[in-house]
Amino acid sequence: MSLLTYDFVQRALLAAFVTGLAAPAIGTYLVQRRQALMGDGLGHVALTGVAVGLWFSTSPVATAVVVAILASVLMELVRERGSTSGDVALALLFYGGIAGGVFITGLAGQSAATLNRFLFGSITTVDERDIWVTVALAVVVVLAAVGLAPRLFAIAHDPDFARVAGLRVRGYNLLVSVLAAVTVTVAMRTVGLLLVSALMVVPVATAQQLTRTFKQTLLVAMALGTAAAVSGVLVSANVDVAPGATIVLLALGGFALAWPVGMVLRRRRRVAEPFSDDALDLDLGLELGHDHTVVPEEHGHDHGPDCGHQAVPHGDHVDYVHDGHRHAPHGGHYDEH
Amino acid sequence: MSEQVIRITDGGVVLGGRPILRGIELTVNRGEVVAVLGANGSGKSTLVRAILGLTPLRRGSVQLFGAPADRFKGWRRIGFVPQRTTATAGVPASVWEVVASGRLAQLRPLQPMRRKDKDAVREAIDAVGLSDRAGDGCSTLSGGQQQRVLIARALAGRPDLLVLDEPTAGVDLASQDTFAEILRRLVDQGTTILLVAHEMGPLEPLISRTVVMRDGRIAYDGPPLESFRDVPHAHAHHPAEHRAHVDYSLDVRTPVDRAAHHADGDGGLR
């Protein structure tokens, strides 16, 4: 691994490490707020910021941060109003962002090839100054996302309850949006603007296949994001492939592995759990029959936790008491138990 | 002399250009257990949301524990149980985590939970009978159990006033009995309770006063009733010469009201 001794590889690894940590940390809150695509949208808008930077020959990263933050505040205000046309407003913002980016880049006399560096990342061209800005911003994002976790969780989980508890819901929501904007521009150098959303969302989707609590999800997602980002850089250092795309494909590979496991876990829980504790205490006076018979009976509903029929745990599944007999769903019919 | 916990004066709420609440006068004193009943769309949930500052008032004012709502600082004294939404959040959350968010009003940002916070959370989960499920994900619970988690979250803050919005909606009868038992213990401790419901069910014996909402107004305020359909007098019969009520929100008055208002006003001047 003689490649690891090169400065640019070391810088790329450090950049990948901190982005892999920060992107899923803030992504967890976006997923919880059902805004998984917000990172993608911010990435589109940040492109306009990059182009403005190219036009004025200043740092594209600095202008991208400013434009992405403005867009995130705007998106948060649209979301807060809760209007049904919110997603249309967001679409306008996204396409305006990417069209503006291409347009202004042309005005600046730059070619699309310049934009490619930002669209798909250029982790190997990260210089000394970039790396410290990236690390500093990522540390801020991680500290806020982990340190303020109880509050940010409560607000994303139930904004009404949080407001009645006296929390500054609007302030914290804006904070999450602004941190997402910062993360997008940080990750711009590693995975690029078009793929940044993947690093924010895919590790979270993978983590929640396996976890039961919010804290576990947050921490596992951060670990998975870091693992994907660092191994993506290592792979592309040895094989001639694009680092950004490799990182995202590795993250998706992790999801593909975790999904079947999650399916089994969820199925096991669903079959075994939807009964209330109160049902255990009631004497139902119904004996279990060992031979299961199929009952051809009309059901206006599927039995479930809320159907109002008494639920009784029975081995690895749940029976429901219906019209004086008890039965459990089995394929397209009910088995009498 | 009883302390006024909630006081709403001349309350009016307009949503999307439609008057939802009109001329609301309501006072809840300490230790009372008030049930707000009404048909769907009668404005009972909006009344609760207006009291808690979740829906802005177009007219009138709200006082909480004697302080105007906009300058009220004692939010930690209020426990709120919102209507249960069937959709669970996008990310898994355990019972403990959800209930622990009920302690946030007692903590500064970045401050970790103290021992008394953890004790309060444990006690609240215990009170709703979910101790053995504390580490489980909320999405694996039944509807009635999820409702109990939301109640535990409100209890974790040890509130002086508990506000519940349709706590028994979609909850099976066995869970409703458990829920009535939880409320009874709170009532015995002197907690003031304001509760919105469609029907009373097993909660009826706990109630000290019933308020019935109809078309955004308070149609009844008095001794407990089993159902909003039991209101003794659905409407008052005014003498023919009685002048029209002018209690709509100012900017949502109908042309007929406006005419009546002008007639009254002009009459006074001449």
Automatic annotation (TrEMBL), chain A:
What does UniProt give as GO cellular component?
ATP-binding cassette (ABC) transporter complex
Q: Which domain of life is it from?
A: Bacteria
Transmembrane portions of the chain: 12-31, 43-70, 90-110, 131-154, 174-205, 217-239, 245-265
Disordered: annotated segments = 314-337
* Biased amino acid composition, Basic and acidic residues: 314-323
Q: Which GO terms describe its biological process?
A: response to zinc ion; transmembrane transport
Bilayer topology reads: Multi-pass membrane protein
Subcellular location(s): the record lists: Cell membrane; Membrane
Known InterPro entries for this protein?
Answer: ABC_BtuC-like, ABC_TroCD
Keywords on this record?
Answer: Membrane, Transmembrane, Transmembrane helix, Transport
**Family statement drawn from the similarity comment of this UniProt entry:** Belongs to the ABC-3 integral membrane protein family.
Protein name (Swiss-Prot/TrEMBL)? Zinc ABC transporter, permease protein ZnuB
Species per Swiss-Prot/TrEMBL record: uncultured Nocardioidaceae bacterium
Q: Which taxonomic lineage does the organism of this UniProt entry have?
A: Bacteria, Bacillati, Actinomycetota, Actinomycetes, Propionibacteriales
